[in-house]
Amino acid sequence: MTSIWSGYNNVGICATALISVLRHTEHISVPKALLVMPLVMHEATVRHLSDARVSHRGSAALAAQRPDLFTNFSERYDASLVASVNAIQLLVVYGYAIFNDGLSLNKPLQIDKSFGKRAEKIDKASSHIASLLSSPVDELYLNFRVKI
Fold first, then answer.
1. What domain range is 58 assigned to?
2. Which Pfam families match (predicted)?
3. Rounded to whole angstroms, what are the CA distances from 1 to 5, 30, 54, 77, 78?
């Protein structure tokens, strides 16, 4: 298996994505938090989820409608585990989140143009990502084809 990791997908972008999603959910379990980075490290997925014309559907509907977004999701999941755990730790250490039976929003972080266009696009997609993650965790892992 070839690695799909790059410096482009790093702890900072993962922390930005997590805090953006937390603004909409206020709490997220660790298994669900670990799904955020594989979603945002795929440009086509972020483009789709940030499109205002796209309706917020559940994970099963999205996987059925756009299977191309999940063809290598399990590999992205594996490649992003370290960054995801480090991003969770970073958010907790700097007081943006509290780790208590998952990750809870402690103080919001406003994502603006100083974060860059990619972070702004991820922030725009974050409400749709939060909506997706409202499904049961076992359903998410099944629909996103994560092999554990």
1. 11-143
2. MC3
3. 12, 26, 33, 13, 11
